[in-house]
Write a structure and sequence with these properties.
The structure holds 2 protein chains of 2 kinds.
Chain A (H helix, E strand, L loop, with lengths): L22 H29 L6 H11 L4 H8 L2 E5 L6 H6 L2 E5 L5 H6 L10 H12 L7 E5 L3 H4 L1 H9 L4 E5 L8 H22 L5 H26 L5 H9 L6 H16 L8 E6 L8 H8 L3 E5 L19 H14 L13 H10 L2 E9 L3 H16 L3 E7 L6 H11 L4
Parallel strand pairs in A: 1-2, 1-3, 3-4, 5-6, 5-7, 7-8
Chain B lengths: L2 E7 L3 E8 L2 E9 L4 H15 L9 E5 L11 E2 L2 H12 L6 E5 L4 E6 L5 E6 L8 H11 L6 H4 L14 H13 L4 H20 L6 E4 L6 H11 L3 E3 L6 H9 L3
Parallel strand pairs in B: 1-4, 4-5, 6-9, 9-10
Antiparallel strand pairs in B: 1-2, 2-3, 6-7, 7-8
Helix pairs in contact in B: 2-8, 3-5, 6-7
Classes of the chains: A alpha/beta, B alpha/beta.
């Protein structure tokens, strides 16, 4: 898909239009300011809470400060000296962006304040990640002006461009990357490689840079080092040394700095956690819909009730580590093929047809650590994960692992009922 | 006297049970309102008076339910599923292995172990379908007290169905049925069937008898609808609205 021309005339409403002198502009400005203020206040409250934890260490300040910074596209771009590209979902190789000195900014929302600021008229039972993102766009209208890379994962993500265009006007430039939903047949792999190669060409064009195998190899190395640091944190978490809230804060800040700086900070954090005593509560593995900052409700509850989160398979958590990139052919085409394979094969997103492989990482974690059960975080409106959870529950039971599905959204009002479930779950482990 | 008090601070009612040597010797309830701790203490005071015990009587206290953490004086706080399992297991004389509890805002399906502990459970997610709130809403729309539901459900009339388990949509459907001239009996039977379907879905397939408790379990019409849905016997203990508070008292030991 070629870049679409920018359209400045929104079709229905003007909630996020730049403020102007007229009543509509003034109203849009007020909506923007109100949304931005509430979103910032919510994030600040979460960060204040994290900062007040007794296990806060100076090595974690970096991540807290990253989250507290202005991460608008303009500010991020100025800080990193790179063009920022919006990215939804992790299947596309991040190395392609880095090789071209582009900065991928993963866009999904975890803010209830943003969700509440979303334009009116959206579907009632909507993916909370995207509702929150759309509320975030009300507070930060410049997001609509970015280049967007959208892998066609779930229906919500695939339909996002159309939905966003109703309220924000057409997104400036969109590159949809079509994701084959079957992994097991060679045609799918070929199609995916073709999509990845097409994206590589597209990113070259928008970056205005020429890049080749050396740049790709450099990016693979840079990202590999950052991911290795995260892998070390994940191993320490298996031992119960890394509380869930810190782990998700670290992964949640991944897209807010250069990978090398982030990776070095993750290494320092790992050094700190390596010296921490393991948590002693019952170990659980987190699965399901992504947990996105600042919506750490489930993590707080698990923490409060004495659970130790020993692992996760979320695309906002451990899945950032990615699958090993097998470098056999070091030509540009060979590197692209290796990256494409890594992203497609390693992805555990429930949108794929053959999904029993989701069980593997959980069983692996259970063999490495004292995982007694799985807490499945299901965001209301996230149908792929809801469907996936049923078979997963059956398969986990067959392997002797307990399972608790927690359906929730971003509001805080269900903390009591979630807590009841988690309290009752504990004695069953 | 080895007195133990269980307090279930639920979303619609606060229930208190006094137990001595594991036997329930007094029970009482009050509507949930602000200042739950004071309401609970008043209930305990009533129990002590009615049992002829002085206000200085020593007792162990366990709290459960959504308001359990509001009760600072409790010696033990435990989740209502665990309390429910203990109370029901005792009242069923150790027979209960599968149970459905209908609370004010929760619908719980539970499997019990041989020892009477929670072996597995499921609860309704963020939705009032199948809960006590659903019945309360229906009672308001039908302008009929909940206590009459059992009797009215036996009144003949054409079979109708509530296709939606959503409380909001069910309300619309009930209004439509009333507008069509459908009588209270068929509508209440449809309500029972709707809740039974929801509860059975949570519990899954069972072979053994299912125990129903919580306030709505007093309505035998609901238990019959559940039997139709589950195709197994549905049993109701005496005073099913007190099983959770009783279980909390038992959790204190003794």
């Amino acid at each position: 898909m070629e870049p679409t021309p920018q359209t400045t005339e929104p079709r229905i409403a003007l909630p996020a239009a730049p403020p102007g002198d007229g009543p509509a502009g003034r109203r849009a400005g007020r909506l923007r300011d109100r949304a931005a203020g509430r979103i910032a206040a919510e994030a600040r409250a979460e960060l204040d809470w994290l900062s007040g934890r007794p296990d806060r260490d100076p090595s974690l300040d970096y991540f807290v400060e990253l989250m507290a910074r202005d991460s608008s596209p303009a500010a991020l771009s100025a800080r990193l000296g790179r063009k920022v590209v919006a990215l939804m979902c992790l299947q596309v190789p991040l190395e392609l962006f880095l090789a071209l000195d582009l900065h991928p900014l993963r866009l999904y929302g975890g803010s209830v304040a943003a969700a509440a600021s979303a334009p009116p008229g959206l579907p009632a039972l909507m993916c909370p990640l995207l509702r929150s993102l759309m509320g975030g766009m009300v507070g930060e209208p410049s997001l609509a002006g970015l280049d967007w890379v959208i892998p066609t994962t779930c229906d919500w993500i695939s339909g996002f461009e159309g939905l966003a265009s109703l309220y924000f006007g057409d997104l400036a430039r969109v590159r949809a990357v079509e994701l084959p939903r079957r992994k097991e047949n060679p045609q799918s792999a070929e199609r995916w490689l073709s999509e990845v190669a097409g994206l590589w060409g597209y990113l070259k064009r928008i970056s205005g840079r020429k890049a080749g195998r050396r740049d790709l190899a450099r990016a693979i190395g840079d990202l590999g080092r950052a991911r290795a640091a995260l892998g070390r944190l994940a191993r320490l978490r298996r031992e119960g040394r890394v509380p869930g809230v810190w782990f998700f804060l670290i992964t949640g800040s991944f897209f807010l700095d250069g990978v090398s700086a982030w990776g070095q900070a993750a290494s320092r954090a790992a050094d700190f956690f390596a010296g921490r005593p393991p948590q002693t509560g019952p170990g659980v593995f987190l699965s399901g819909s992504p947990i996105v900052f600042p919506n750490f409700k489930i993590l707080h509850l698990l923490d409060d009730l004495g659970y130790a989160v020993l692992g996760d398979d979320m695309c906002s958590g451990e899945r950032l580590i990615g699958r090993h990139v097998a470098l056999k052919d070091r030509s540009e085409e060979g590197l692209l093929a290796a990256l494409a394979e890594s992203g497609h094969e390693g992805c555990l997103c429930p949108v794929f047809v053959e999904n029993r492989r989701r069980l593997g990482p959980i069983l692996e974690a259970a063999s490495e650590a004292d995982v007694r059960g799985v807490v499945f975080h299901l965001l209301k409106g996230c149908h792929p994960y809801e469907m996936d959870s049923l078979a997963l529950e059956r398969d986990l039971a067959a392997n002797g692992l307990r399972f608790l599905r927690l359906e929730t959204d971003y509001t805080a009002e269900d903390r009591g009922s979630l807590s009841t479930r988690l309290e009752a779950f504990r004695p069953t482990l | 006297m080895d007195l133990r008090v269980g307090l279930d601070l639920g979303s619609t009612a606060i229930k208190a049970v006094f137990a001595e040597s594991g036997e329930m010797i007094w029970r009482g309830r009050a509507a949930t309102a602000p200042r739950q701790e004071a309401i609970g203490l008043d209930l305990i005071g009533s129990g002590l008076r009615e049992l002829g015990l002085g206000q200085g009587q020593k007792y162990g206290l366990a709290s459960t339910g959504y308001g359990k953490n509001l009760f600072q004086a409790a010696d033990l706080r435990l989740d209502e599923l665990s309390a429910n399992a203990r109370g029901l297991f005792r009242l069923s004389r150790g027979q209960a292995r599968a149970a459905i509890n209908i609370g004010g805002q929760d619908l719980k399906a539970m499997r019990l172990s041989e020892e009477g502990r929670v072996a597995d459970f499921r609860m309704n997610d963020k939705c009032a379908a199948g809960t006590g709130r659903f019945f309360e809403l229906a009672a308001r729309i039908l302008d009929t007290p909940l206590e009459s539901f059992q009797e009215l459900s036996r009144v003949d009339g054409p079979e109708v169905e509530l296709s939606s388990t959503c409380v909001v949509f069910a309300e619309t459907e009930i209004v439509s049925l009333l507008a069509r001239g459908v009588g209270l009996g068929p509508i209440i039977r449809a309500l029972h069937a709707s809740v039974a379907k929801r509860a059975a879905g949570l519990l899954g397939r069972v072979e053994e008898a299912v125990w129903l408790d919580g306030g709505p379990a007093l309505n035998r019409g609901l238990a019959e609808a559940l039997e139709d849905e589950l195709l197994v016997e549905v049993r109701v203990v005496a005073e099913p609205q007190y099983t959770v508070a009783y279980g909390a008292a038992l959790a204190l030991g003794g």
